Each structure stands twice: as C-alpha cells, then as structure tokens.
Amino acid sequence: KNSEKIVSSVSSGVLICCSDIVVRTDDFDFLLTDNTGICVKADFSTASNHGVMVCDDKFRMTDYLHKKDPSYLEEIARELCLDGMLVDTGITYFTDEFSTALKNLALSTEFDSLFSKKAVEICLYSDIISLLSENVSREDYLKTETKDCDHHSVKELLFDSLSAFSMNVCEVVNEKFIHFGSSKEALHNIRMLTGGSDIYTKLDSFID
Fold first, then answer.
1. In contact, 191 and 207? CB cutoff 8 Å
2. Cβ distance 32 to 81 under 8 Å?
3. pLDDT tens, position by position, 70-84
C-alpha cells in the first residue's frame, strides 16, 4: 500500500519500500527518473531516530545524516536556515544504471572474496544511500559507522563503484509517517491515532 501510487511513476529500476513504515502517498504525482529518496518533514526528535536527507535548492541530496542527536540536527538546521528535517521514509527508487552497478559489484570477485571469509553486515542507509550525497568524501565515508577491517574493505569497494552517482530528494508535503519500530514508538502511535483519548492516558508513563 505504501508504494502503490509510486509504482505507477516508474517504468524500470528498483523501488525499495520498508515494511515497518506507513506514509500516505495518495497525492504523490512525481515522475521518478533519477535515484530518489522519498521524505517527509519532521521535528528534530523524530528525525534523530531515522536518516535525514539534506538537499540543495535543486533538491539534490548534499548530505545524509543517519540517526544523529536532536541537538546536532538543530545546529545543522540553523546553519542552513531549515524549519525542520526531511526524514527518509524508507521508500527509495534506484535507477537501472545504479541498480546494475550495485549488482555488478555484488557479483565481482573482489566483493565475493570478502564475503567468503565471514558475513559482513551492510546498511542500506549509512553504507549505500549516504554514498549518493553530493558532498560525500572518501575519508569521511570510510570512518563513519565502520565496524571492522572487513567492513572497511567493503566500504572502499562501495565508494569506488557507486560514489559517482547522486540522489534527488522528494518531499511528500503535509504528511507524517508512522514507524512501527520500538515498543515506545508503537505506544506513541496508538496514542496519536486515537487523538489522545482518555482511554489511553495510562500509556503516557511508558512513552515519556
């Protein structure tokens, strides 16, 4: 249901839709031709639990901030004169060209040799989507959220193969999303969806 409207706007490539997030896309009317991240505007506290897509005036992603502290996000917002943060909804479109490059890398001898030693956990957000930022540098990318030597080697291959690509940011205006992540978030969502009904006032002790 999340991607129902968006599917009709693409003719090829790969559309990723996270199963633990619900966002209304009824009014979505963009034609997706480039790599695109679908976002909604959120407050700093909410944004701190997710990925944030910072973009320029042409809606090209310039930075990807993955689960940063609210105070840090507020500082970035002041510097860039932003009134909120564009939070990654988990709906992402990859073009044929990018998808093929990623597939070819996964099938490469270099990639295979790293994974033949042991499993290496790769994060879609901090390891792949962040690479599509206009301002990404090799040095910063390799030192951010790198777990061990094998992960570092995988990130080197990812950077060399994918950093030339970029991503557009598309905001679904005047919408919020529900994230069925932690129990705390689930309780908060119940409270929000019931309009703060007195029946659920006891949930506050779990939420706060």
1. yes
2. no
3. 999 999 999 999 888
Q: Please say whether the beta carbons of 9 and 38 come within 8 A.
A: no
- Decide if 35 contacts 99 (C-beta within 8 A): no
User: What is the pLDDT, as a whole number, of residue 111?
Assistant: 85
Residue 71, φ and ψ in degrees, nearest 5: -65, -40
**Of 153, 145, 158, 156, which is closest to residue 118 (Cα–Cα)?**
153
Quote the tokens at residue 157.
Answer: 């291959």
Best CA proximity match to 6, nearest among 38, 40, 51: 38
- What proportion of the chain, given as a percentage, has pLDDT over 90? 41
Contact 156, 142 (CB under 8 A): yes
Which pLDDT tens digit goes with each residue over 8-40?
A: 777 788 988 876 777 777 767 777 889 999 998
Beta strand pairing call for 168-171 and 61-66: unpaired
Q: Is the dihedral angle over the CA atoms 186, 190, 196, 198 positive or is it negative?
A: negative
Specify the 3-state DSSP secondary structure of 10. Answer: coil
Q: Is residue 207 within 8 Å of 76, Cβ to Cβ?
A: no
The number of residues in the chain equals: 208
